[in-house]
C-alpha cells in the first residue's frame, strides 16, 4: 500500500523533510516504524525513543499496535504542546 | 461552537464581547487567553508555533464537542494561532457560556487541559541562548486524569 507520511517539529527536523510517500506492507504502526528505522541513520535517530513519539493515523491519535489497513496518512510528532 | 486556527492576531476584547452578546438565558461567560511567555534567563527572539493542518481543526472540534456533551453550555469558542510570535503576543483563547458559572468555569478548564496535550501544536523557542522545542510536561498529561 502507499502511505503519505508526515513529520512534525523535531521529528521533521531530524528526518529532514515534512512528508514523503512510502510504499509499504507494514501491518501496524510499530512495523512501519521498524521499516523506517532500518532505512537510514537519521530515521533511526528520530525514532530512537518511542516514548517521545506520538502517532496519528488518518488524523486520529493512535498507538503502535494500530493496524494500517485502509490507512492513507500517518503522522509522527512529539508530545503536543498546545495552549 | 466556533473553532478558528489562524496565523493572524485576534482582538481578545472584541472576541469576548461578541461571544457574550445576543443571548438572554446565558448567566456566565468564562474566557481565557494564553500569552507567549519569555523563558527565564533568556531573551526570546520569537516563538514558532507549528501545527498539523486538518488534524488541528478536527482535534479542536472533538475537544469542544466533549465539553458541550459534558456541561450545560450555550456556546464555546476556541481560537489558536500558529506561525512566528513574539513575547507578550496572544497565542490562543477559549470562551464558554452557560446559565450558571460552575459549568462555564469547569468547561473552560477542561478545554485548556485538553488543548495542552491533545491538540497537534508544537512550540519552538528561538532565544539568545539557542533554539529549543518546548517539551510537554508530565503534569499536563496528568491533568487529563482529573476529567
Automatic annotation (TrEMBL), chain B:
<protein>
    <recommendedName>
        <fullName>Molybdopterin synthase catalytic subunit</fullName>
        <ecNumber>2.8.1.12</ecNumber>
    </recommendedName>
</protein>
<dbReference type="InterPro" id="IPR003448">
    <property type="entry name" value="Mopterin_biosynth_MoaE"/>
</dbReference>
<comment type="similarity">
    <text>Belongs to the MoaE family.</text>
</comment>
<keyword id="KW-0501">Molybdenum cofactor biosynthesis</keyword>
<comment type="subunit">
    <text>Heterotetramer of 2 MoaD subunits and 2 MoaE subunits. Also stable as homodimer. The enzyme changes between these two forms during catalysis.</text>
</comment>
<comment type="pathway">
    <text>Cofactor biosynthesis; molybdopterin biosynthesis.</text>
</comment>
<dbReference type="InterPro" id="IPR036563">
    <property type="entry name" value="MoaE_sf"/>
</dbReference>
<dbReference type="Pfam" id="PF02391">
    <property type="entry name" value="MoaE"/>
</dbReference>
<comment type="function">
    <text>Converts molybdopterin precursor Z into molybdopterin. This requires the incorporation of two sulfur atoms into precursor Z to generate a dithiolene group. The sulfur is provided by MoaD.</text>
</comment>
Amino acid at each position: 500500500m502507499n502511505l503519505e507520511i508526515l513529520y512534525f517539529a523535531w521529528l521533521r527536523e531530524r528526518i529532514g523533510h515534512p512528508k514523503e510517500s512510502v510504499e509499504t506492507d507494514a501491518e501496524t504502526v510499530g512495523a512501519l516504524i521498524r521499516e523506517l528505522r532500518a532505512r537510514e541513520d537519521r530515521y533511526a535517530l528520530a525514532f530512537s525513543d518511542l516514548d517521545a513519539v506520538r502517532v496519528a493515523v488518518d488524523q486520529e491519535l493512535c498507538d503502535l499496535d494500530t493496524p494500517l489497513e485502509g490507512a492513507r496518512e500517518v503522522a509522527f510528532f512529539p508530545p503536543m504542546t498546545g495552549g | 461552537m466556533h473553532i478558528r486556527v489562524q496565523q493572524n492576531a485576534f482582538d481578545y476584547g472584541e472576541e469576548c464581547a461578541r461571544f457574550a452578546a445576543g443571548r438572554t438565558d446565558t448567566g456566565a461567560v468564562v474566557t481565557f487567553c494564553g500569552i507567549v511567555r519569555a523563558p527565564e534567563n533568556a531573551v526570546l527572539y520569537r516563538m514558532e508555533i507549528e501545527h498539523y493542518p486538518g488534524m488541528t481543526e478536527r482535534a479542536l472540534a472533538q475537544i469542544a464537542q466533549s465539553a458541550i456533551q459534558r456541561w450545560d453550555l450555550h456556546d464555546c469558542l476556541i481560537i489558536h494561532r500558529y506561525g512566528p510570535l513574539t513575547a507578550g503576543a496572544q497565542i490562543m483563547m477559549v470562551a464558554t457560556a452557560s446559565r450558571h458559572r460552575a459549568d462555564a468555569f469547569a468547561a473552560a478548564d477542561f478545554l485548556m487541559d485538553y488543548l495542552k496535550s491533545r491538540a497537534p501544536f508544537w512550540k519552538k523557542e528561538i532565544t539568545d541562548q539557542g533554539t529549543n522545542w518546548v517539551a510537554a510536561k508530565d503534569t499536563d498529561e496528568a491533568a487529563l486524569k482529573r476529567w
